[in-house]
Automatic annotation (TrEMBL):
Residues 28-39 have a biased composition (Polar residues). Residues 555-568 have a biased composition (Basic and acidic residues). InterPro entries: Tfc4/TFIIIC-102/Sfc4, TPR-like_helical_dom_sf, TPR_rpt. GO terms for biological process: transcription by RNA polymerase III. This is TPR-like protein. One of its GO terms (cellular component) is transcription factor TFIIIC complex. It comes from the Eukaryota.
């Protein structure tokens, strides 16, 4: 025996001819393990290809034996006298080898290869033992005597001994029927029918089940009937009608597809099947069926007409008339298929065929629609100049057909041709063709042709018979996209008055109010929407019905739509086609929003307040769309973004989502998360929803800059930090750009700890590079709060470790080790202090790498670059940090090292002079005069080096000398240098140049004047240099 729960056994059993029936009952009745028994038609979808082909069902004997064996096996596991309501609620075992042998015999018979054993005659049942025959006789006698309970007891004993005794089941069912238990009698007859090979018996059981309201059971019986009699189309149609009645559209779909196998291209079946396929979002199948029918009728009736044998009248297209053409064109015009060229082909060629001009194939040579041009005298304003030798045909074209042509041409980008057809349609009476007007306006709107869509929507909204909330909302959207915000707000207000519960209109109006700088009105509308949704959620929760009472049917009898809805909560909830349609809709929304943002960009940059608010509102939607897409923020961030739908082989294991309340976007992402198990070589995609990642980054950074200017730095930092984790922006250059944007925003908001953090991350990323050090010095150039961040202890320790690493790299490369996780060189851990390692782990986690990503990191291999000589900038910067922290002695030590590495750098000389003067002013200095002399010596060398390189910086040199003398108390010398700075500044004023350090020199000079009592001179300086 083979366990059905074993995947290997299931794969083996899928080859057997009775799979369709056996799997159906197994899945339909597995209530003991799952808690709820889905209907038999759930499993049909796993074998839909077999169901469509009548030859794949196997012989009737094989099918019934397989099902009955499982029924009997289940009976043996239960008490003989137990109720049979739950008989089908087990997972049965069966002999796979026996059915595999029968399957091979069927293959030999079908192919004509090999020897096939002669089939035995249909068995009517096993040979019964004398004991069983005696018991059956006793039971029949008890029934004749009217002892129904005794008869039931005897027949149950017969079934226990020999479950294949057909008469026992029949008599037992009759006994229950005589006692009034019709439901149990029906169940027993269904069990007995598995031993009989009578299609009429299954038909009677199906009719009886339908009359008793057991629709799922009736569907099962009709399926058995079709298995036994594959030519019985009526069984398929009855099964279809019942499935449609209970909302089981997938079962109805499979039944009608099976009907089409028998009567292909039947228009009646296609018309029944079309709404079902549309409801299931299977538009591709629907289009292919109608396309095949179109080609079939074209080849069968090349003249475009047929004669009715009953009335003798002409039938256009042999039955495939203009309405069927419209259906096929509408399918191709949907955004799901988006095969607009095929829609044009169908309308042009189909109308030509129905007009009896199928032989005029030369019109297919024309890319335009000159075949159906109109006389400009009859329809003014639609004259089109045609280029070429072929003159316009001027053939008549139905308005509905021209409307399909207009929509297809507009959507495919052939705007001129589409507008020509649209103008002809729009010249008709709007009262007669309002739906066509609306679809043309929608096509314009989809192509972002708001100026063309707006008058059509307004024309529809002007009359109560053609107006609707949708039309008004679209008209308001057009006005908004064209910049008429006040008019758009008026339309939204009108919609809200007509429908106070319209949340969409309220949210759109709130967005306009926000742009118009009316936040209170916007907030009131948002609160109304939130309250309404909460009330609806509470009402839905209170309105939930209790569990249905137990049923006597062999299957779970409830609405198919509700069953699908409940079952989909444990999966993604959407088919792949629906997910793709949802993604296409999101992409269109993103493209529309980005187009609007791009149009507003120049106004926003020029300082237009209204344009800036609207730009922020539109950009916020795009930013949130980017940030909420999980495919852009995977756990393995070194794999590049590969698109929303990646092509690969089907994974052997499918991941099921267990979340019960997922919105549309999460369902889209869950479908993609099931595809992550497939290992394949990553291929980078540079576009997300129609917008390149460079444009996304530009938008995100500009959005953060505007938020920072509006005192919303925390939100701007959150956005920029979030996109650092995106798979789309894991390249080093892009990461640097984002970090520089964070530094810019933090500097603007005076959040200098964030500036320091990002600078340190840049230093860790670009090891042995001086550019991050320059960025640090520029970002923390001057100011008290900047100085506090500059001298913080964590930065000092970080710089000290970097100096040690640099020194080791120059002196002894053997002590260097490449850190895979940090992706930078570090000292050998055995030679490092544990405290330094702990601080390193806390302070220098600059590279955001998950432990599992290290091996796959693109730059995990050691860098070949190592310094060969000492870096004066690193040591000099650390000396300046010590100097700013008033640790002048340490500053002199490190600055002297920098001087040894680069003795001709004026900045190092100036820093040494400052540090020497600072140390000389401290009480602990025991060689004060030596330090002063040393400071003057470095100042002198600084002046020599500075004037040699650039003679235009004399004011800087004079100012620094004046500042040094002022600190030493030599005011007369200081005044002379400060006055020299002011003289140079006056010369610059005459030339119209910047005054340089004049204000700083004037301020210091005024302090000396005030200190020495020369207040009038200080007043002159105030008025001339220090007044605004």
């Amino acid at each position: 025996m083979v366990d059905c729960s074993n995947p290997a056994a299931i794969q083996e059993l899928e080859r057997s001819s009775f799979e369709d029936s056996s799997d159906e009952i197994t899945d339909a009745t597995a209530s003991d393990t799952s808690g709820s028994a889905p209907s038999e038609s759930d499993v049909e979808l796993d074998n839909e290809n077999n169901e469509d082909d009548p030859a794949s069902f196997g012989g009737p004997e094989t099918v019934n034996d397989g099902d009955f064996d499982r029924l009997v096996e289940n009976l043996r596991r239960t008490d003989v006298g137990s109720d049979t309501t739950g008989v089908l609620s087990r997972v049965w075992d069966f002999n796979a080898e026996e059915h595999d042998a029968e399957f091979k015999d069927d293959l030999r018979a079908a192919s004509g290869i090999g020897r096939v054993k002669r089939k035995r005659a249909r068995r009517t049942g096993p040979a019964l033992s004398q004991q069983v025959k005696s018991l059956i006789g006793d039971g029949n006698q008890a029934y004749i005597d009217g002892d129904l309970h005794g008869c039931i007891h005897i027949m149950l004993e017969v079934i226990r001994i020999e479950p294949r005794a057909t008469s026992a089941w029949s008599v037992l069912a009759q006994c229950h029927e005589d006692t009034g238990d019709i439901q149990k009698a029906l169940q027993l007859r269904i069990m007995a029918a598995h031993l009989l090979y009578d299609p009429e018996q299954w038909e009677r059981l199906a009719v009886q089940s339908k009359e008793m309201g057991y629709n799922q059971q009736a569907i099962y019986c009709y399926r058995k009937l079709y298995n036994l009699d594959p030519t019985n189309i009526k069984a398929l149609l009855d099964r279809t009608f019942i499935a449609k009645e209970i909302g089981d559209l997938r079962t109805a779909r499979q039944s009608l597809l099976a009907v089409l196998k028998h009567i292909p291209h039947d228009l009646g079946v296609l018309k029944e099947l079309r709404p079902i396929l549309i409801e299931l979002s299977d538009l591709s199948t629907c289009a292919s069926l109608f396309q095949a029918a179109f080609e079939h009728y074209q080849s069968t009736f090349p003249s475009g007409q047929s004669i009715s044998p009953d009335t003798g009248t002409s039938i256009p297209g042999g039955g495939f008339d203009m309405m069927d053409l419209f259906v096929l064109a509408d399918l191709y015009n949907t955004s799901t298929l988006a095969q607009y060229d095929k829609a044009v082909y169908v309308i042009k060629r189909g109308c030509r065929w129905l007009q009896g001009r199928a032989d005029q194939k030369y019109w297919d040579m024309c890319e335009d629609d000159r075949e159906y041009d109109v006389d400009p005298d009859k329809v003014p304003g639609v004259a089109v100049v045609r280029i070429g030798d072929l003159k316009p045909g001027m053939y008549t074209l139905d308005v509905n057909a021209r409307h399909r042509l207009a929509v297809a041409r507009i959507k495919m980008g052939d705007v001129d041709e589409g507008q020509m057809h649209a103008n002809i349609v729009l010249s008709e009476n709007v009262m007669d063709y309002a739906p066509l007007f609306a679809e043309i306006a929608d096509a314009y709107f989809e192509r972002e042709m708001y100026a063309q869509a707006r008058p059509v929507y307004e024309l529809l909204g002007a009359d109560a018979t053609t107006s609707s909330l949708y039309v008004l909302l679209q008209a308001a959207s057009c006005r908004r996209m064209l910049g008429d915000l006040q008019e758009a707000a008026e339309v939204y207000q009108h919609v809200i008055l007509a429908d106070p519960l319209n949340s969409d209109a309220k949210m759109k109006l709130a967005e306009i109010y926000e742009v118009l700088n009316e936040p209170r009105k916007a907030l009131d509308l948002v609160h109304q929407v939130i309250d309404h949704r909460r009330r609806m959620h509470r009402a839905n929760r209170e309105g939930e019905q209790s569990a249905p009472p137990p049923s006597s049917s062999l299957f779970e009898e409830k609405s198919r739509g509700k069953a699908r809805e409940s079952s989909s909560k444990t999966k993604t909830g959407l088919t792949v086609m629906q997910v793709r349609a949802l993604e296409e809709q999101k992409e269109k929304e993103v493209l529309r929003g980005y187009s609007r943002v791009r149009n507003l960009w120049s106004g926003m940059m020029s300082g237009d307040e209204l344009a800036e608010r609207e730009w922020l509102l539109e950009a916020e939607k795009l930013v949130e769309t980017f940030r909420e897409t999980r495919n852009l923020f995977l756990s393995t961030r070194n794999n590049p973004f590969q698109g929303m739908f990646r092509q690969h082989r089907r994974s052997k294991r499918s991941e099921e989502a267990t979340e019960e309340s997922m919105a549309a976007r999460l369902q889209l992402e869950l479908v993609e998360s099931e595809q992550l198990g497939q290992k394949s070589k990553p291929s980078k995609v540079d576009v997300f929803r129609g917008v390149s990642f460079d444009d996304w980054l530009r938008l995100l950074m500009q959005y953060a800059f505007l938020l920072t200017n509006r005192s919303q730095y925390s939100l701007a930092e959150e956005v920029l930090r979030h996109i650092l984790y995106s798979n789309a922006y894991q390249e080093v250059s892009t990461q640097d750009t984002i970090r520089l944007a964070i530094i810019s925003c933090a500097s603007r908001a005076r959040q200098y700890p964030a500036v320091l953090e990002q600078c340190r991350r840049l230093m860790n990323t670009h090891q042995f590079n001086n550019e991050p050090l320059r960025i640090l010095c520029a970002a923390l150039s001057s100011g008290l709060r900047q100085t506090d961040s500059f001298i913080i202890s964590t930065l000092q320790k970080h710089m000290l470790r970097e100096m040690k690493i640099h020194d080791a790299a120059v002196k002894n490369k053997d002590t260097m080790k490449w850190g895979v996780v940090g992706r930078r060189y570090v000292l050998d851990p055995t030679a490092r202090n544990k405290e330094e390692e702990a601080d390193d782990a806390i302070g220098d986690g600059a590279v955001d790498v998950a432990p599992g990503d290290a091996a796959a990191a693109p730059d995990a291999t050691p860098s070949k670059f190592l310094p060969t000589k000492h870096n004066p900038m690193l040591v000099g910067l650390y000396g300046q940090i010590c100097c700013a922290a008033k640790s002048y002695q340490s500053a002199i030590f490190y600055l002297l090292h920098a001087y040894d590495y680069c003795p001709n750098d004026p900045l190092i000389c100036l820093s040494l002079a400052v540090a020497s003067l600072g140390r000389a002013m401290q009480r602990q200095a025991d060689n004060r005069h030596h330090l002063v002399a040393q400071a003057v010596a470095f100042l002198t060398k600084y002046r020599t080096l500075r004037t040699e390189t650039d003679s235009g910086n004399l004011d800087e040199v004079e100012y620094n000398f004046g500042r040094a003398f002022q600190q030493l108390g030599l005011h007369s010398h200081a005044v002379r240098h400060y006055e020299r700075v002011l003289e140079l500044a006056e010369d610059r004023l005459i030339r119209g140049e910047d005054v340089g350090l004049a204000r700083e020199a004037a301020y210091n000079l005024s302090l000396i004047y005030v200190t020495t009592g020369a207040t009038p001179l200080a007043q002159i300086l105030y008025k001339k240099w220090l007044s605004i």
